[in-house]
Structure formats: structure tokens, C-alpha cells
């Protein structure tokens, strides 16, 4: 008489009832889904976000082409090797990203980020061309430079082009602007030193970070120019893109470059003498080596003094082909 | 039992392929765990993201091979006739190999940023977690699913004669294909892309695969224990129905933070919290069904893995899924190693073990060695079980530390603070991974060579000596329903402790003052407790099964019960 296991007359109506409930739930799901993507939700879309001439919509394709989600999370989904990237733009800003992405194997220094601020796109997007104002606006960049600047990262170098980097920045700008309902949760523990101490039991700042890129302009004149140059290329983030042997990274390798014959993109050749090297540092776009795009390297014209450029050139003399 | 239908033999090649892909996939897993401890391992040669794409891709492929093998083996029995179009099944087999090889080459292109854009679609690879393969492979997979659905549906009798098992498999193979379609379009908006990506991932594992799982477990129990088809049918119907009633809106537990509105937090938390119900139901049924008669365990490894599958579904999917399915707990667990703890136990535990169970059931019959040496199979089972429990433990505890350092303290980079704090657990992962990998190797070796090695001499006990040794101890006395209930309750108590641990991250004491004592304590009790109880319960259950009168004499033991009795 009762509705026991199977066979009883109650089973069929019960099953019907279950299907009705299922249909109602499906309807609820569809309605909620429609409301999720209505205009009134005011969620940003990638077609409305750009960085300079670069579109966030293109950046999304670059992000997928390199399978960034295979190491990082984005809105919390993906892999857990690297940090979450949803708000990377918001924390570190476009200039830090532009300094980091061409050679992700190294952490940018202040000088490397300052070099990016020469780019008008950067000035327009970050709203400033002064490194101090930039670091104030994007404290995440200051923190990154202070703790790790000049060190090596765990991320492999990727063969990103200049355009792809601009597009990625636009995409990260888009994800930073998204309303993700409060995720990742805001950090409410106060005080950086205290947080590091809670994590490791000791204040680890000093030990974890190589000395921040202190301006070395005041270096005494007696210093060996080659050593001075070697320090400068580190501080200015040059070695993020250039190898000290003849390997090609983002830019050409330096080993054996001095006095060699260089083929340029317009088909002509030049000898890499002192004048050429100086020009290539100050105005890299004046002559582009064959096989490299224009506009990747920032112009160091206003960033380096004459004796600093000379010290770097002296250092380049010392590097041999390997 | 004799093989009644020649087309059942087609399942063999899928089981063998499954084992090969399984071993390869585990190899990638070991590599990943090494790269997690030292990211420079193979950097530039095989970057973490490429290895991970392979790991996930092969994981899905070998689980599907297990499903296909099992379906091909039971299909003719359910239909009472040969499968139609065996040539299509052979084609499917080669298609799977082609897809695996193709993906091996195309997934690597991520290292060079090549997706193969054409007509707005990424044809070679698309860099989305679980859907890494490009459109070409995606379309091939779709064709593969279409073949499977066609063959199964054409082989089955007319719909009017279907029982619940037919329905389960019929709907399962059709939905497998239907859901896949949502992964075949490029979506420009991130929130919409994630919305549809979870259609594939969530509705597969928690909608379609669970349905196939319930059905296959049900039918394997019918085959092994002569359980009444009607009572299994009842269990299958309500199991499937509960899966859908909870899982349909339960999908919203992936919609909390992807840019979709806040209201999903309510719907997702509510309905996905009900998702463990069908799993408890299935768990209970395996207890009942395995105890309807007191016949001895004939094919021990097959039953070991069925039990493992149902138990790990209970704790891996049901309990660990439950702990992070509420917006208030997920806000912390999301995007951390807590998630792969659940992922490994649920995916390998539930579906991987089912495929291996089906292989252990079918292969001895197909090779005509019903009285095979079962010791390697049992050894392999214990190795992968402890291995995967240990891995889940390392992920989950490592993830708890990660939540604290990364989300609570806001210390940012993996190379600096987070990885350093997680160090011990990152090291434990490859250790347990090795145990797991050895188990996987043992299983693959055993199944590949089963019946080809020297046979067990007549008269020897195929189970080894252990079976008779513990026949009389208290540990192996029959497992009563009451006791099974106590074990289940213990698991859920530890599950509750874990949930409270994740919740406690919300307390001002933790969140503002930065004191991790409470979440660490609760996780430190909850995870090891849950995993130990699981290990003990499986041991206890199997001991009671093994202790049944060990008369391995009759060939009648593996007889099939007609599907529509
Ligand atoms: C056998 C069934 C299941 C399998 C195979 C499975 C598998 C997975 C996998 C692979 C992920 C990881 C997704 C990622 O990488 O981001 C995941 C996430 C998740 N699963 Fe399951 N799952 C199952 C059942 C369940 C159940 C029953 C629940 C709830 C009670 C659940 C709740 C969750 C939650 C909350 C997440 C995390 C979402 C996030 O934070 O991103 N799962 N599951
Ligand atoms: C020796 C065995 C294994 C080891 C050492 C291992 C290790 C790993 C590692 C290190 C990750 C990456 C987690 C991260 O992004 O940080 C991963 C991800 C994953 N593995 Fe495994 N794995 C193994 C076996 C398996 C098996 C057998 C399966 C399923 C059949 C599986 C399924 C997955 C899934 C679904 C993910 C993504 C999880 C998520 O994103 O939440 N793994 N595995
Ligand atoms: Fe889910």
C-alpha cells in the first residue's frame, strides 16, 4: 500500500513530479543566465577597453595563444604555479608590465620602468611621465621593484612581440576593470613588515630582495668604466632583453658585437663602432638590425648621462662572442 | 561467464589504450609536481603550461577510453545482440590515437604563442583550462562522440523496451556530445567565456559522467553480484535524477567570481550543497548491493576498484566538493591548491577507478583467464589509493597555507613568499605522486600482460594467502548497515570540520589580525582525519568481503544476469 522501493503505484507519479521540478529549475537557470549578461548589469566588455592603439579584445587572443592560464589563474580559474592575473594591471600598472613582459625571466628595475614612461602611450595611460608619480599611483609596482627588482623570476621568457605586449596590457586593463563581486578578497591585515613576519616568522624583506636599483650616477670617477657599465646595464634592465653572449633574446646579443659588421633592416650594413653603439643606446630606432621590429627598445637619450653611455660602451667592448 | 557476443571484444583495445594513456598522463603529473617545486625544470623545453595541458588532456582522454571500453563491453549484454557497425568502433579507436598524438604536437605551440587563428577561431590550441585543444581536435572529438552515440543508440532495442540502465547510458552518450558543443566557439568576453567553459567542464563531470558512472556501477554490480535489475534500476533512476536536480543549478558554484552577478552566490551555494545527495545514495547502494548475497568475492580487483570509485566519489567529490561549494568558503579556496585536492580525488577517484574496475572485470573474461593471479591488481589498488589520498592531502594542506599567505596576508609572488611557505607540501606532492605512479605502473603491467604470464598453478588460491589469514578476525567480520552508517558519518564529521576551517578565514581574528591558528588547526584535523577514515573504511569493507567463504571453485560465479529479467 505504501510507496516502497520500486514497483509500487506511487513510483510513476513520483518520477513525473521529479521531471516537472527539473524543468522548473532549468527555467530558473535560463532566466538567471539572461539577467547575467544584460546591459543593465554594467559589466565591462573587452571591446570598450584599449591601451594606446591596442585593443583588449586582441589581447585576449594573445593570452589564449600563449596559454597563460596554464600557469596563472584568471578570475581564479587556471593553474596555480604563478600569481592570479585578474588585477595585475591595477596593482603594477602598464609601464611595469611593459618592462616585465618582453623578458619575463627577470624582474624590472626602477630604471627599466622609467624607460617605459618615455612612451607616449604609457604617459597617456598611466597619466604621468614621472617615475615617482607612477610608483605612487601603482604601489604594486613599487613593491615589486623594491623586493625583487633586478632578480630572476620563475617565469620563462616568451617570444612576445611589441604589439602582443601592448595588446596583453589592454587585456589586463580590461580584467582589472571587471566587477568580480569582490574577488580576490581585500587584504585586511595591516603593515607590510608585519605580514612578512607572520608568513615566515622573520622579517624577510632585506634578505629576499637584492638591493633596490640605487642610482649609481654618483659613482666615483675612479671606478673602472667596464665595471661601471656592467652595473648600469643591470640597473637599467638592459640585460632583460640582451644576452651578454651572442644569443638572440628580445634584442640582439652583445657578445662580439663591438667592431663587427651589422646588417640593418634597410639592407645596408654598418660597423658596430663606438658611435654606432652610442646611437643605438640613445636612439635605438634610428638604425634597426635586420630581423627586429622598430620601437621595441626605449630610447635612453634622456635617461643616461654621457659618461654613463660611455661606460656602457666600454663594457660592451669587453664582451666576447662565445 | 563466457563472452556471448563477439563485439564485446572491441572493448579490449580501448582498455589497453586507456592504460597506456594513463601511464603517460601520470608521467606528466610527476613532471608538473617537480616543476612546482623547481620551476626551472625543463623550462623553455616543456614549460609548465604545456605539460599541464597534456596532463589534463590525456586525463580526459583516458577516462573517456575507460567509459567507451566499459560501454562496449556491456552494450551487447544490454541489447542482447551484437553492436552495430563494428568498423565505426575501430575507426573511433584510431581517431582517439590520432587526437592524442595531434594534441601532443599542437599543445606545445603555446610556447610560441601560436593558436592557429583562422575565421576567428583558434584551430591548433586555445589555451583554456580543460579545453586546451584547438578547434581541429575539438571537431574530431565531436565526431568521435557522434560515432559513440550512434553505435550505442542503434544497438539498443527500441526505446519502449528500455529499462533505467538503457536510459542512463543512452542519455549519457548523447549528452556527452551535446555538452561538448559549448566548448567549440571562441567567446570574446571573459565572463561569457568562463560561463560556457563550465557548461562543458561542470556539466560533464557533475552532469553526464556521474550519470554514466551510476549506470555502469549499477550494471557491473548486477553482473558481479546478481543484484536484482529492478532494484538497481530504482537506484539508477533516482541517482540520475538527484544528480540533475542538484547539479543543473549547482553549476553556479563556478559563477561566483567570474564577473557574473552576485545572485549566483545564493543559487550556487544552495543547489550545489545538495550535489552530494546522489553520491550518498550511490554509496549506500553499493553497500546494499554488495551484501545482497553472501557469495565470495570472485574478481577481487574489479570489486576493489568499484568500491574505491564509489568511496572516493563520496569523499573526493561529495565531501571535498561540499567544503568549498559555498560562496563564503569558495572565496578563499578558489584559485588555490585546495581545488586540485578535490579535483584529483574526484576525477581520478570516481571516473579513473571506474575505468580500471571495468577493465579488471572484462579483461580476464576476454582473455579467458577467470582464475587469474589477483595479487598484483590488489597491490596496485592499494598503491594508487594511498598515493591519491596523499596527493589530495598535500594539495589541500598546501592550499590552506597558500590561502593564508596569499589571500589573508596579501603576499604576492610565488617565487617569494607563497612558494616558500608552501614548501613542505610542494615536496610531499611528488613523493605521494611516486607512490601513485608505481601503482599505475603495476596496474598497467598487470592488465596488459594478464593471461600472458605464467598461469597460477591449479589449486592455488588466486587471492594469495592474506585472504584466508584474516578470515576470522574482528576486523573482517561482516559489515553491518549500522557500522557502514557510522563510517559514513565519521567522514562527514571530518568534512564539516574542513568546511568550518575554510569558513574561519572570514573571522576578524584571522582576516584582520592575521592569526592562522584556527583554520590551520581545523584543516590539520579535518583533512588527515577524512583521508585516514577513508583508508580504514576501504580496508574494513574489503576485509569483510574477502572473509566470505573462499570457495573459488565454481565457474558459475561470473554469470551474467539478463538485463531485462
Ligand atoms: C565526480 C564528480 C566531480 C568531479 C570529477 C569534479 C571535478 C572537479 C574539478 C576537476 C575541479 C577543478 C576545476 C578547476 O580546475 O578550476 C572542480 C572544482 C570544483 N568542484 Fe568539483 N567535481 C565533482 C563533483 C563535485 C561536487 C559534487 C561538488 C559540490 C558539492 C563540487 C564542487 C566543486 C567546487 C566548489 C569547485 C571549485 C570551483 C572553483 O573554486 O573554481 N564538485 N571539480
Ligand atoms: C602521479 C600522479 C599525479 C601527479 C603528481 C599530479 C600532479 C598534478 C599537478 C602538479 C597539477 C597542477 C596543479 C597546479 O596547477 O598547481 C595537476 C593538475 C591536475 N591533474 Fe594531476 N597529477 C597526477 C595524476 C592525475 C590523475 C590520475 C588525474 C585524473 C585522471 C589528474 C588530473 C588533474 C587535473 C584535473 C588537474 C587540474 C586541477 C585543477 O586545476 O584544479 N592528475 N596534477
Ligand atoms: Fe562543478
How confident is the prediction overall: mean pLDDT of chain B? 91
Largest interface chains and counts: A-B, 83 and 92 residues
Q: Give a quick account of the main beta sheet of chain A: strands, pairing sense, barrel closure.
A: 2 strands, antiparallel
Number of domains of chain B: 1
Structural class of chain B: mainly alpha
- In CATH terms, what is the fold-level topology of chain B? Cytochrome C Oxidase, Chain A
| Distance between the amino and carboxyl termini of chain B | 17 Å
CATH level-two architecture of the largest domain in chain A: Orthogonal Bundle
Q: Helix and strand string of chain B, N-terminal first?
A: HHHEEHHHHHHHHHHHHHHH
Q: Please report the total strand number of chain A as a whole number.
A: 6
Secondary-structure-based class of chain A equals: mainly alpha
What fold name stands as the CATH topology of the largest domain in chain A? Cytochrome Bc1 Complex, Chain D, domain 2
Q: What is the rounded Rg of chain B?
A: 23 Å
The overall strand count of chain B is 2
- In total, the number of domains of chain A comes to 2
SS strand fraction of chain B: under 5%
Q: Summarize this, please?
A:
Chain A is mainly α and 322 residues long. Helices cover 44% and strands 4% of the residues of chain A. Chain A contains 13 helices and six strands.
Q: What this model shows, in words?
A:
The complex is a heterodimer of chains A (322) and B (565). Chain A has 322 residues and is mostly helical. Chain A folds into two domains: 46-177, Cytochrome Bc1 Complex, Chain D, domain 2 (Orthogonal Bundle); 218-317, Cytochrome Bc1 Complex, Chain D, domain 2 (Orthogonal Bundle), CATH 1.10.760.10. Chain A contains 13 helices and six strands. Chain A has helices spanning 11-36, 56-65, 88-100, 110-116, 120-126, 131-137, 139-148, 162-177, 192-200, 205-208, 225-235, 274-282, 306-317; strands spanning 50-51, 54-55, 73-74, 77-78, 261-263, 269-271. In chain A, the strands form three sheets. In chain A, strands 1-2 form a two-stranded antiparallel sheet. The longest helix of chain A has 26 residues, at 11-36. Mean pLDDT of chain A is 86; it is low at 204-220. Chain B has a single domain (6-451, 474-548), classed as Cytochrome C Oxidase, Chain A (Up-down Bundle), CATH 1.20.210. Helix content of chain B is 70%, strand content 1%. Chain B has helices at residues 10-37, 48-79, 86-106, 135-155, 164-180, 190-225, 229-250, 263-272, 276-290, 300-323, 327-333, 338-366, 375-408, 414-449, 466-469, 481-503, 508-511, 517-546, and strands at 117-118, 121-122. Chain B has a two-stranded antiparallel ribbon. In chain B, helix 1 packs antiparallel against helix 12 and helix 10 runs parallel beside helix 13. The relative contact order of chain B is 0.10. The model of chain B is unreliable at 464-470 and 551-565 (pLDDT under 50). Chains A and B meet through helix 1, helix 2, strand 3, strand 4 and helix 7 of A and helix 2, helix 6, helix 7, helix 8 and helix 13 of B. Bound molecules: protoporphyrin IX containing FE (HEM) (2 copies) and fe (ii) ion. The site of fe (ii) ion (FE2) has 4 residues of chain B, from helix 6. One protoporphyrin IX containing FE (HEM) sits between chains B (26, 29-30, 32-33, 36, 52, 55-56, 59, 63, 339-340, 343-344, 347-348, 352, 429, 433, 436-437) and A (79-81).
